[in-house]
Amino acid sequence: MPAILPDHESGYHPWMTIPIPHAINRRDDGLLIEWDDAGHQGWYTARELRLACPCAACVEEMTGRPLLQPAAVPADVRPVSLALVGAYGLKVQWSDGHSTGIYTFEQLRARCTCRLCAGAGVTPDTSPISRPSQSQ
Ligand SMILES: [Zn+2]
Ligand SMILES: [Zn+2]
């Protein structure tokens, strides 16, 4: 049974203080971002991150509709280089030539798939105690 996070109340909210990564490690198949020095780190697979590019060429500004065709992104796309944007985000030069997207730390933090964050994003309704029957 998964443990309930002690700080469930302080789950991620966009208006909270902007998270600043402790360290960002570039690898050919993705980025490893350390959010603090206490072992909180998230893995961002290169292609998934590329597909999540928030720039105006990849996402329609007015509607948020994705414009980027996943088929147009090479399966082996990789981050060639990284550049910090102010104190709030990260610009990635991709091997497919794309580099206009700015990934804010907020977005990256919200996409963190580590056990800690994944747990915080899921309603803890898997307890066998208080669920006598299915109510769907
Ligand atoms: Zn883009
Ligand atoms: Zn996380």
Can you walk me through this structure?
- This protein is an alpha+beta fold.
- The chain has a single domain, classed as NE0471 N-terminal domain-like.
- It is built from 3 helices and 6 strands, in the order βββαβββαα.
- A 3-stranded antiparallel beta sheet has the order 1-2-3. The chain has a 3-stranded antiparallel beta sheet with strand order 4-5-6.
- Strand 2 and strand 3 form a beta hairpin.
- The chain starts with 22 loop residues before the first strand and ends in a 16-residue tail after the last helix.
- The N terminus is likely disordered.
- The structure holds zinc ion (2 copies).
- The site of one zinc ion (ZN) has 7 residues, from loops.
Summary tags:
136 residues, NE0471 N-terminal domain-like, 3 helices, 6 strands, globular, disordered N terminus, binds zinc ion
Gyration radius over CA: 17 Å
Beta strands, count: 6
Q: Which structural class do you get from the secondary structure elements?
A: alpha+beta
- Order of adjacent strands in the largest pleated sheet: 1-2-3
Provide the succession of SSEs: EEEHEEEHH
In the CATH scheme, the class would be Alpha Beta
Q: How many distinct domains?
A: 1
The helix count comes to 3
User: What is the average per-residue confidence, as pLDDT, rounded to a whole number?
Assistant: 83
What is CATH's topology name?
A: NE0471 N-terminal domain-like
CATH architecture assignment name: 2-Layer Sandwich
Small molecules bound: zinc ion
Give a short account of the largest sheet: 3 strands, antiparallel
The helix content, as a percent range, equals 10-25%
Which descriptor suits the 3D outline? globular
